[in-house]
Specification:
alpha/beta, Rossmann fold, 2 domains, 6-stranded parallel β-sheet, 5-stranded parallel β-sheet, globular, binds 2-acetamido-2-deoxy-beta-D-glucopyranose
Length: 465
Amino acid sequence: MPEKTLRSSRLLLSLTAFSMFFLILSSFFLFHSVINPLIPSSIYKQFVADSVPIDNKLEGNDELELSKPVVVPLPLDLSGNESCNRNKALLRVYMYDMPPEFHFGLLDWKAGPNRIWPDVREPKHIPRYPGGLNLQHSIEYWLTLDLLSSNVREIVRPCSVIRVENPSDADFIFVPFFASLSYNRHSKVVQKDKFTINKILQDQLVEYLMSRPEWIKSGGKDHIIVAHHPNSLLYVRTRLGSARFVLADFGRYAANTANLEKDVIAPYQHVVRSISNNSSAPFEQRPTLAYFQGAIYRKDGGAIRQELFYLLKDEKDVHFTFGSTQRSGVLQASLGMGSSKFCLNIAGDTPSSNRLFDAIVSHCVPVIISDNIELPFEDVLNYSEFSVFVWESYAVKPGFLVNLLRGIGKDEWTKMWEKLKEVAHHFEYRYPSQPGDAVDMIWQAFARKKTSSKMNRKERIYRTQ
Ligand SMILES: *[C@@H]1O[C@H](CO)[C@@H](O)[C@H](O)[C@H]1NC(C)=O
Ligand SMILES: *[C@@H]1O[C@H](CO)[C@@H](O)[C@H](O)[C@H]1NC(C)=O
Ligand SMILES: *[C@@H]1O[C@H](CO)[C@@H](O)[C@H](O)[C@H]1NC(C)=O
Ligand SMILES: *[C@@H]1O[C@H](CO)[C@@H](O)[C@H](O)[C@H]1NC(C)=O
């Protein structure tokens, strides 16, 4: 090769290498900033660097549950034991084999040829859910994974639900559309196109369902659609309103589209770390009387928050931060809630928020100031045993709240704290699901709907003095 050509091809080579390097570097930063604009990098790293052997992480629930999809193989001598089958399960559910673009494709999962679902046997084949605040609404992901794993004999899980092959065998028909993820990831208008991918998917969903014999037969009444983010499924929720929804609350729904008779309220996935029983601080070791942090959320919330802020801001043992977004928000909230006796849940732009569930897993007694809130599993859980209910109109009376909380002494508080420790696991989303966890509780709630449409909520005891 003549020397000149050689030199120029070397130049070309190094140029190529150089630009490749930059491409990789910039895509790394792009990935980093697009997926997690709101969470501190320490937390982000937890998700990304989570390649520790899975078995080490089975104990305790200090980790964010997302990061460990676990398949526990049964001991050999038990395999072949039909521990769950269609006769034993409380619920038989048929799930549409919808194209991946409606579900795991939204997690950038690439289906192989003729594949619709990831192989749930292999933890490394299960697409990860993005971290950060999107996690709050990941309910669709956990329920779908649980249905998929219900047909895998080696996976140990409760037998509340089993996926059946034949729609006519099913109590309910599950629609595997990741509506919250679709909203979170695809609600920006793409250049040139007038519509968002989120809207297009919703229109396609309606088209898909309306052409299905199962939908036509029941008018959609036995279909389950998960739409946990208050803005998800926005364009088509009334058209699909005959279906049973899994929701965070009814705040943005008309009463005939969503109600307790047909629908199920599911907890938010908490974003702070769960406290273990052993490290949960008792009464004396929680110096802060009441805790509220609005900092990790983007929206400013309702007027009542401002009123309470002005009432409480000068109380020395009350932590009330409002407005600013701090990078270390999640970590601070974990520490703050874990060292507070009471955690305030004040109505915001929606009646519910994940603060309630962050409080519960921090064993910080929730003070619920949100008249229109719906609470998960309230027909079986007596929230008054571990929470304090206050009407909004009472909370804003000067002195009322502080006097009420100071009046709750060690004994009464400790009873509620012990109860919190008992119920906290009902609010954990896990894969594989475990008895009584949030996934199991949601299926059980549907099982109760099978027999009775009336939901008898436990009476809430509102404090008025
Ligand atoms: C299946 O497993 C359960 C619990 O592990 C055990 O109680 C039951 O006897 C087993 N059944 C059969 C048929 O092996
Ligand atoms: C919790 O404390 C008990 C008794 O002090 C101890 O036996 C147990 O091992 C501890 N559990 C964990 C997970 O640290
Ligand atoms: C719920 O708990 C409260 C507080 O412990 C109690 O007073 C009330 O009787 C309970 N309600 C039911 C229906 O058990
Ligand atoms: C924590 O303690 C409560 C009772 O105080 C108990 O019901 C619960 O099972 C315990 N949780 C764990 C993970 O040990």
